[in-house]
Specification:
single chain, 338 residues, mainly alpha, 17 helices, 76% helix, transmembrane helix, DUF318, membrane, Permease, UPF0718_permease
Amino acid sequence: MNILTMLFGWLNDQLLKMKWLSELIRLFVEKVFGLSINDRIGGSIHFFIYDTIKIFILLSVLIFIISYIQSYFPPERTKKILGRIKGIKGNILGALLGTITPFCSCSSIPIFIGFTSAGLPLGVTFSFLISSPMVDLASLMLLMSFFGAKIAIAYVIVGLILAVVGGTLIEKLGLEKYVEGYVREIENIDTDFIEMSRDERISYSKEQVKDIIHKVWLYVLIGVGVGSAIHNWIPQSVIENVIGENNPFAVLMATVVGIPMYADIFGTLPIAEALATKGVGIGTVLSLIMAVTALSLPSMIMLSKVVKTKLLAIFVSIISVGIIIIGYLFNAFSYIFI
């Protein structure tokens, strides 16, 4: 058991946290710039270069792997799978299938429209819509690289629970009439699924890597830049006073601040990492991540074109309350994850 623990720790440190890369960047900053990473400027340069390279390496590898898996579940096949299962089982399956689909909420909405026009239960489609941007294999691995396995696994579990509960509540409330009429009228063409060869899957995965990196690279750089500023320039006392553990409204504030931001988990994690190192509660940090990924303002604007105001308001309310509850629970039981 000790050998397995040591092996897992080594793999986590070297493959996910990339401590070897951190050491290389430290030597680079000291030799090339003549700066210590313990100083503000040197620390900022180290944080920015190290986190940027680490995120893009992990991003490329994870997107390739997930896209390869995703090639087995195109929308046509996914609709057929979801269409066969009703009730809570359908919500669970919708949430799980959301983990192997696009990485931001805006990308998920067109698929949500397709599922709705195909006549899938509204609760199932919302479970998919919630989990798709917030919980995926990439977020699991990246969270492990920043916060460790316990927090990463717990985040994925509560994210899936939120997706299932949110979809179930929307289904039970009978809100189908609040979907815009044109969505139901969209002609749903049931095309045959074309099996891809191994080379085609590899080519598809490479294209997905290029496409997604092209979409997110700017947000990653902004996120790393903000994280670097928080980590090296903002005093810990300021962070603690604003959203530290002593502020009972910290989780609420993090959720509200996260909603108008437009980013994905890749751009949000460097900020979350910097906040965590400044003493911000893990629940507060995770609430920020969830709010940014699941309730970003641009995706809500897109969703407002698909559903009526009442359904949109109920959706935002359910997810916001869920995120806040999750945040406070994580803060209350943070000793489990430390």
